[in-house]
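Reviewer 2 asked us to include a model.

Predict the structure of this chain.
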Amino acid sequence: MPVDFRKIPGTTKLFSDFLYDFGKVERFYAGDFRKDKNYLRVFKSIKERKYPREKLSSILKEQSRRFDSPEEVFKKIALLKEPDSLVIFTGQQVCLFGGPLFIIYKALTTIKLAEELSFRFSRTFIPVFWLDSEDHDFEEVRSTCIIDKENQLEEIRYSSSKIPSGEPMYKVVLEEEINSCLEKLKSSLHPTEFKDEVVHALEDRYSKGQTLPNSFAKWMTRLLGKYGLVIVDPGDKELKKLAVDFFLKEIENPSKSMKLAKETGKTLESSGYHQQVVKSEDAVNLFLEMDGKRSALKWNGESIQVERSDRRLTREELNHIIENEPERLSPNVLLLPLMRSYLFPTAAYIGGPGEISYYAQLKSVFEFFDIPMPLVYPRASVSLIEDKIKQVLQKYSLEFIDLFQDPEILINSVLKKKFPDPLENTLEKKRNEISKILDSLEQELISSEPTLKQNLETTRGKIDFELKRLGEKLFQAYRQKDQTLKERVYKAKNNLFPDNKLQERVLNLSPYLIKYGFEFVDFLYNKVEIEKIDHQLIEVG
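Predicted model (structure tokens):
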């Protein structure tokens, strides 16, 4: 039961054309993700470059041991040493308890595309998940949402004694408060045969003393490691050493990459699209860690200004830091896709609507860095419809897209369908009869006393107003009787379109695991169809 994205609120024109009319946006990308010839062209470009495969394999092995990865992951890492092996990438911030459902769908799309391309082209493709462990937006990752016992949207929010401000997430160590988050998750959900197992698995990974990225990586490995999903932490010092020349290239011509992205952004806007990157042209697309915090950099034409400080660096000074302490540097959102493709033989990136918009501004930047631009493949987009919600939709003849509207309006429309027609028709019939009587009375009054016409019109208006109000009161009385309808519509709304957003952007996976067990991940793996570009509706029994 697919839903066309053009019917979903908030879909941008750029994303819509990317999915349904690619020819209009083709000049902004490496090619159409549906065509084999584009993959072959990217493969050829990658083959012409050299990658530090042995070193990458060694780094990934060490990291995967830290994430308690199963043997399937190490087998994939070993394949990276093969000269013709390629990587399918995705990535995300390190959210609490794994974050919203769409993160799982991104990872599953990555795994399944790697499998599909391996079969289609008879070569090795490795699914890799890039942790945004250097991101410093704590507010975006500290909470997650569930539907509680009462079918209400509930936020689980992690607090700490000191709220991080500017620190990269790999420095955020979980405190005792994480136990309160786990307790809230437990108390908010009904007991099931799987509840203890799932909660204990979360407790083992999201525990006091763990860093947020490590917890997230361990949880994702528990869920998807058996499919060979390799997780890479870019904060690794050894990995940063491999990126020294990449960082130096950005500093060689400060703000050049930003200017290129802005120029493409203007072209996007003149073509009727939006530009995702809106930073100023003097931005250097790197962060520098100073005093434990991640600071943005700007180029003033002579030196590099460090954000949130009076510190200015010459290019020579920054080059010295890059060459001797590369772990202090990290790419911003614009340069991050290039760093992945600089380090790894990246054939495709799995992204959502926002990331697809970012890539639309990067083609000339990839060319400037002389890095092969990967194809961009849309992640699977899914809404899960459980039996209890399916029954509500069927009972009231509702479609999935009906839930995009205000629930009160939706309730009224359902009630109008159910309203007792005989009584409503009787009221309408009596209004018409009274109107005819007044019409007849009008002729007699005007013939005997014309000045009374205005009085009659006033009386007609009052009678009609009162009859309409009587009908509305009848409707409201009927509505108050049907409180069950209201509860059911809100239940469906909260489950499928919580906070007026797609379910996948809000709700966490944990409640589904608690209801259906860890085998639910296998269910998703089998049900999610990555070749479908529409939003998928998957029924859960």
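The mean pLDDT is 92. Residues 453-481 form the longest helix (29 residues). We have added this to the supplementary material.
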